[in-house]
Amino acid sequence: MKRLLILGGSVLQIPGIQKAIEMGIYTIVLDNDSEAPGAKLAHEFFQISTMDFKKVLEIAKKKEIDGIITLASDQPMKIVSKVGEELKLKTITYDAALKCTDKGLMRKALKEKMVSIPKFLVAKNFQEFREYHLQFQQPFIVKPVNSSGSRGVQLVKEITQLERIYDYSAQYSSSREVIIEEYIEGEEFSVETMTYNGETKIVAITQKKTSETPFFVEIQHMVPAIINREQQEVIEEIVIKTVNAVGIEYGPSHCEVKLNSRGVFIIEIGARLGGDFISTKLVPLATGYDLVANTINISLGLKPNVYEHRESAALIKYFYSPIDGIYKDMLSIDVIKKSEYFYETNIYIEKNKKVNRLKSSNDRIGHYILKGENSIELLNEVEEIDSNVKVEIEGEIK
Question: Which residues form the ATP-grasp domain (predicted)?
């Protein structure tokens, strides 16, 4: 029986644990939280930080693992790569992991390979931020160099309290380094890929919708995106160029792009599966491609499965609050469950609990997923649902 080490036992990792067990693979899960949901699912569990290289390597050697993965988390990829290099497993290299988890290194690598990206500068501290921001026209984007889930990302339209702007983004960066970058107008997409032995396959292009400025939190994803053949080819070409530029040779990647009249711009890339249920639910529902199973196969040194592509569509919409307040109820939620396109719905918070204004993905309070024959019918259904289903929030907490 093959032995797979999975870094992380959170909800994000559960699809990987479940899929590996379904595939007849012995699962070993590590997490710093002894109460992590994945702890009870795995064949073996160890309470170890996924960022502790020495201890992770010790377990990997002791258990004689055949592969190592983490699903939708960025930072553990550095440990995955170091263990992979040490044990000669099919993982990305440590150099590629660094480029995919540090947005500054990522942009430098893409710039060197002539990949189209926004103008950017990395500020190591407030003094550099104060100096560098003068080189950008407003509005511009400020974000931490190593964070995810929209945490710390903000659009700066006017300079009022410069130190406060810096501190908001820097608090989410382990080094307090931030990136200042040109704001790119346009439609936003993400692209899921799978790479084996340096050859990359484009699996799906997701059309994204984000909240209003200044925080740009993702509130809707749809597969496939509604684009024409020319747009699809341009996006696919630049994404493959991006995968090669950061040096991903094995495994999945999740690339975020923007498209406008000037062309396609790469916003960032992660050497992992896409989060927000894109990889675990939307892509399989819409295409039939099992990204999780193929990520596991590649980690074990096996070729990705060949599959018969299915032309369907899937969409996820998130519930959230526009203010700080108390969550009371989800009005008319039965409208969703009665939809002919209904797949699932989930509310993450109990009634009468405090909720925050939407600033990052952690502030979202639930979701629903629809599946159907094509994307246009799902968009029409979302419009109908959203005209009936309302989040009831009481008051505003000062």
Answer: 107-300
Contact criterion met (CB below 8 Å) for 194 and 239: no
The verdict on 71 and 137 lying in the same domain is no
Q: Residue 132 belongs to what domain range?
A: 119-182
Q: Which two tokens stand for residue 389?
A: 């289903």
Residue % of the chain over a pLDDT of 70: 98
Residue type present at position 80? V
113 within domain boundaries: no
Distance between CA 286 and CA 277 in Å, rounded?
Answer: 12
Tokens of 249: 């040779």
**Per-residue pLDDT reduced to its tens digit, 304-363:** 986 667 789 999 999 999 899 999 999 999 999 999 999 999 999 999 999 999 988 889
67-69 and 26-31: which strand pairing? unpaired
Same domain, 7 and 66: yes
State whether 208 and 258 are in the same domain.
Answer: yes
CATH number, position 80: 3.40.50.20
How far apart CA 32 and CA 326 sit, in angstroms, is: 31
Buried b (16+ CB within 10 A) or exposed e, 89-125: bbbbbbebbbbbbbbbbbbebbeeeebbbbebbbbee
The pTM assigned to this predicted structure is 0.91
